[in-house]
Structures are given as C-alpha cells and as structure tokens.
Design a protein that fits this description.
Layout lengths: L9 H8 L7 E2 L2 E2 L11 H17 L1 H12 L5 H23 L5 H4 L1
Antiparallel strand pairs: 1-2
Helix pairs in contact: 1-4, 2-3, 2-4, 3-4
Amino acid sequence: MGSIKAFPNANALAKYCGIVWNDNDSGDFVAEDKHMSKAGNRYLRYYIIEAAGSVIKHCPEYKAFYDKKYAETRNHQHKRALALTSRKFIRLLFGLLDKGQLYSPEKSR
C-alpha cells in the first residue's frame, strides 16, 4: 500500500483496494444490482474484507452496522453487508493511519 499520504481521502484508498462498485446505468435507467469492480489490488481487497469480518465478530458497533446493512436488502445480503462494513473499516483505517494513532474502542464512541 505504501504511505497513507499517497491517498487524498478514504474513498481513494477504497478504490485502490478495489472495494467500489461499477456504475450500471443508461439514460434514466439505474440498475439496483451492481457488481464490485475488479480493478485495484486483489490481495489487499481480500485481506481488508477478511479483517472486516474479524472486526464484525469482536466490535459491537461494527456488528450492529453489519446487521443493519444485512437487513436492508433481500439480494446478496452477506456480500453487500460485508462490503459496506469493509468500506466503514477503511474509513477507520484511513483516519488512524493519517493521524498516526492507535485504535482505542473507548475513543471510537
């Protein structure tokens, strides 16, 4: 990944990780079912999603977020909820790395 200073924001880091969705629209049509982009670092994407799965198991805030996203849709529930939780995790990682801080559950609330 290199230095976190190479990324202007968390969205750029997520794009580098490959946790973004391709637009699937034409004219007035906007598809509900969008595929995750295959661009980006596939190894980093795998490990970020694995780390998010671990965070879901150990952090109640992330578990609640995952459950909320899981309940929002009927299609691809687990994949969608895990990807969105991974994006939330990337925002946390970006903030911590950018400020040079360690994670503390007490400070995150």
